[in-house]
Write a structure and sequence with these properties.
Layout lengths: L13 H28 L2 H34 L9 H27 L4 H27 L3 H25 L3 H9 L4 H8 L1 H7 L7 H22 L2 H9 L3 H24 L1 H10 L4 H4 L1 H30 L7 H26 L3 H18 L6 H26 L6
Helix pairs in contact: 1-5, 1-11, 2-3, 2-4, 2-6, 2-9, 2-10, 2-11, 2-12, 3-4, 4-5, 4-6, 5-6, 5-7, 7-8, 9-10, 9-16, 11-14, 11-15, 12-15, 14-15, 15-16, 15-17, 16-17
Keywords: Cell membrane, Membrane, Transmembrane, Transmembrane helix
Protein name: Membrane protein
Membrane topology: Multi-pass membrane protein
């Protein structure tokens, strides 16, 4: 059964949000399952090593979401104009180039990031990113055409492949290497989707009005911003290690706490980038006003999350992951509040990229990331500077986005 409105002109409906929301819930559960299996199977120090690779791939794949954003915007904004470029081919080319760049530059940085299984980590990071670039481009094409069922199916396939490999690793005692493979397993999900779904194949063949150079220019701005956002969202363990040295067992606990407190908000928002961009494109006449409802929802859910994290978070951490994972309620509550700040920055970023304000979008996320990195250098305990960096850094980015949106005049462009 196809989507009710598989064309760029259809509105973003409640049913589309429900479908993507359901897929997001499944993906989130699978992500939690991978983290749970890794934390139970590995000691905190080993989990810290895994988390850095998980974060490194999250950083790289998060940057690749620039392809999703630009593909969604181009398809969504088209009004019957003739096609001039093939986003899927561009995505594949970007993926090959990114993989080569990682492999060729790895001698310069890999020793500072990967402390175990370095060669395997570099190989998996390169190949996984190449596949994910095609994956995220296909997501953008499906979102732009309102094919939300296919969009959700691709997300779920990615998540199920990851948790399947992680479960196999746990069962056979594969160790750290198994979880490294699990991290990138979903990067081949687009192959299965194209093989099984005629709608996905039709979306993959779509041309967009912008020529290849213009499309790549937009992708460049979006990727820069998406990469900066990925540092704060998925790649934070990498940033934390780069500014702290050896994280050890304490770092494993802090990284797990950061991951668990932000996932309930940021996993759905990241998964719904297609919905959000399509929504803000449709609301082009008053994008700042359109931010109010989703921002209020995020703030309300965040306030509830702060309360729950503070009261039951320490018990949950000990019960679910073992007595070696100890964190007090105040830390978990503050980390949840920091997740709200990043979630609001994600919303303003989606509105900015929907307005094709690529430079402002990139500048906002770069400002937030730079501010967070500098705050991590403060001479404070690991826990305190983590909270300060994640709470205060996003405020700079939000200011940049809101100023740009307030000054945008869609009718005159």
């Amino acid at each position: 059964m196809t989507d009710a409105a598989a064309s760029p002109s259809g509105a973003v409906t409640r049913s589309s949000v429900v479908r993507v929301g359901a897929a997001t819930a499944v993906s989130a559960l699978c992500g939690y399952a991978v983290l749970y299996l890794a934390a139970r199977d590995l000691e905190p120090a080993g989990f810290s090593v895994f988390s850095v690779f998980w974060g490194a791939f999250g950083l790289a794949s998060g940057a690749a979401f620039g392809l999703l954003q630009e593909s969604t915007r181009e398809v969504r904004s088209a009004r019957g104009e003739p096609g001039r470029s093939r986003p899927m081919r561009i995505g594949a080319g970007v993926g090959v180039g990114a993989a080569a760049l990682i492999a060729l530059t790895s001698p310069l940085w890999s020793a500072h990031v990967f402390v175990e299984d370095r060669a395997l980590s570099i190989a998996l990071l390169s190949l996984g990113l190449a596949g994910f670039c095609v994956h995220t481009t296909l997501l953008g094409m499906l979102a732009g055409r309102n094919q939300w069922s296919g969009y959700g199916a691709l997300m779920v396939t990615d998540a199920l492949l990851r948790v399947t490999v992680a479960a196999a690793s746990f069962a056979i005692g594969w160790g750290l290497g198994g979880y490294l493979w699990a991290t990138v397993a979903g990067a081949v999900s687009w192959v299965l989707m194209l093989a099984l779904s005629p709608a996905a194949r039709a979306a993959a063949r779509v041309h967009t009005p912008a020529d290849t150079v213009t499309f790549l220019r937009g992708v460049g701005h979006s990727t820069t911003a998406a990469g900066a956002s990925a540092v704060l969202v998925m790649g934070f363990p990498v940033l934390l290690q780069a500014t702290s040295g050896d994280l050890g067992a304490t770092g494993g606990v802090v990284i797990l706490a950061v991951t668990l407190t932000r996932a309930p908000l940021l996993v759905p928002l990241t998964a719904m980038q297609g919905n959000l961009i399509a929504y803000f494109v449709d609301q082009r006449a008053h994008r700042v006003r359109a931010l109010a409802a989703p921002a209020a929802l995020v703030a309300g859910l965040g306030a509830l999350g702060v309360l729950v994290a503070g009261l039951v978070g320490p018990w949950f951490l000990r019960t679910a992951f073992g007595p070696q994972y100890q964190a007090d309620g105040a830390l978990l509550a503050w980390l949840t509040a920091a997740a709200v700040a990043i979630a609001l920055l994600t919303l303003t970023g989606a509105a900015t990229v929907a307005a094709a304000l690529h430079r402002a979008y990139a500048a906002g996320w770069l400002s937030a990331t730079l501010a967070s990195a500098l705050l991590l250098l403060m001479p404070l305990t690991l826990e305190v500077r983590t909270v300060v960096a994640l709470m205060c850094g996003p405020l700079f980015g939000m200011a940049v986005h809101l100023v740009a949106l307030a000054g945008d005049r869609p009718a005159g462009r």
